[in-house]
Amino acid sequence: MKIGKSLWCAAAAFAILTSASHMATAANYETNMDTRMTAVEANMQRIEQLEAQLASLRSELASNYGPSLTSSHAGGCDSLGCDSLGCCDSGCLDKCCNDITCGSNGFYAAVEIAVLEAHIGTVRVAGANLTPDFDYEATPRVIIGYENVYGFGVRARYFDYDHAASGVSIIGGLVGGLTLGLEVEAIDLEATQRTEFCSWDMTVAGGLRYGKLGAAIDVPGLGVAATFEGVGPTVALEARRFAGNSGIALFGKTRASLLYGDNNITGTGAAAIINAVNPSVEEQLLQVWEISLGAEYAWQAGNAEAFLAVA
Q1: 160 and 248 fall within a common domain
Q2: Cα separations in angstroms, 111 against 31, 142, 261, 308
Q3: Which helix (H) or strand (E) holds 201?
Q4: pLDDT tens, 213-262?
């Protein structure tokens, strides 16, 4: 009887210990579950905060940059940029829609038709003072280039102004049949980097320029011509800022070139002209400065982008 009673007591004690262990395990499990649920709730709140910040950022970008992020060239979210690439929906906003070069990967071409009037002061040739009077003329500039999604690219630019002024006046009267021709030709091969700075769309460029500048005065039987051709480095800075979503923008462009080449002066006709000119060829280092400030209006024309600018 004593042995049986002892066994019963031992079994009861074991059962109590086992039950207490199970209860402790259950309590630990509930504590772990509470901790995990708290962490999940914190993560959900963080996700909601990030989504709100993302929506605010998208709204701010649309408000601040306007057409600069919606044009095909700038590659905005509404045109040929982020949205068409699926970038805005894929969560890579920092890499795409917050970059002014978003989605602009590829080749591009542009044609500019500038209406220009040359201004040249009084020119003295063979004892005569000549004052040319040029008209406004349409002058083309062609640009072909490539740009990647980070705004880095290369481009080639060609510009050609070739016009003449007839009926050039001599101080004190007019000389009929006298013509002054002016030719300016430039070919630029350069690397470009486009970026955004304080809401300005900016492009920095640098490379090599070939330049030609020629002027010729022609009278029946007489002629004087001066032509410079040279090659050298060129650097440029372009900046543009849009006024909201209106398509209107302010812009500024500046370029500096240093050309080294030959300056060729020739004369034909009467001996008096030839003696006065003394035909010669000499080497020369020529500085060329360009600057323009103005406003433009941009709009979509199918898959192209059109500009009307006044500078």
Answers
A1: yes
A2: 72, 5, 28, 12
A3: strand 200-219
A4: 988 777 666 677 788 999 999 999 999 998 888 889 999 999 999 999 99
Task: Compute the radius of gyration of the chain from its Cα atoms.
Answer: 38
More confident residue, 30 or 90: 30
Strands 106-116 and 137-147: antiparallel
Nearest to 217 by CA among 121, 119, 137, 124: 124
Q: How far is CA 176 from CA 167, 179, 238, 295, in A?
A: 6, 9, 44, 40
- CA neighbours closer than 13 Å in the CB half-sphere of residue 44: 6
Q: What is the pLDDT of residue 240?
A: 94
Closest CA to 242 of 59, 66, 99, 61: 66
Instruction: Order the strands of the 179-197 sheet from edge to edge.
Output: 106-116, 137-147, 152-166, 179-197, 200-219, 222-242, 248-268, 280-301, 304-310
Beta bridge partners of 259: 286
The pair of structure tokens assigned to 307 is 């500009």
> pTM of this prediction?
0.62
Q: What are residue 5's DSSP bridge partners?
A: none
* Cα separation, 175 vs 311, whole angstroms: 34
Q: Confirm if 87 and 79 have CB atoms less than 8 A apart.
A: no
Specify the number of domains making up the chain.
2
- Give the C-alpha separation, 177 to 166, whole Å: 7
Q: Please tell me the least confidently modeled range out of 89-103, 207-221, 267-281.
A: 89-103
Out of 63, 92, 116, a domain closes at: 63
Domain ranges, residue 186: 105-310
Q: Which residues contact 210 (CB under 8 A, 6 or more apart)?
A: 186, 187, 229, 230, 231
Give, in order, the Cα–Cα distances in Å from 34 to each of 7, 12, 37.
Answer: 41, 33, 5
Distance, first Cα to last Cα, the chain: 118
Please check whether residues 58 and 112 belong to one and the same domain: no
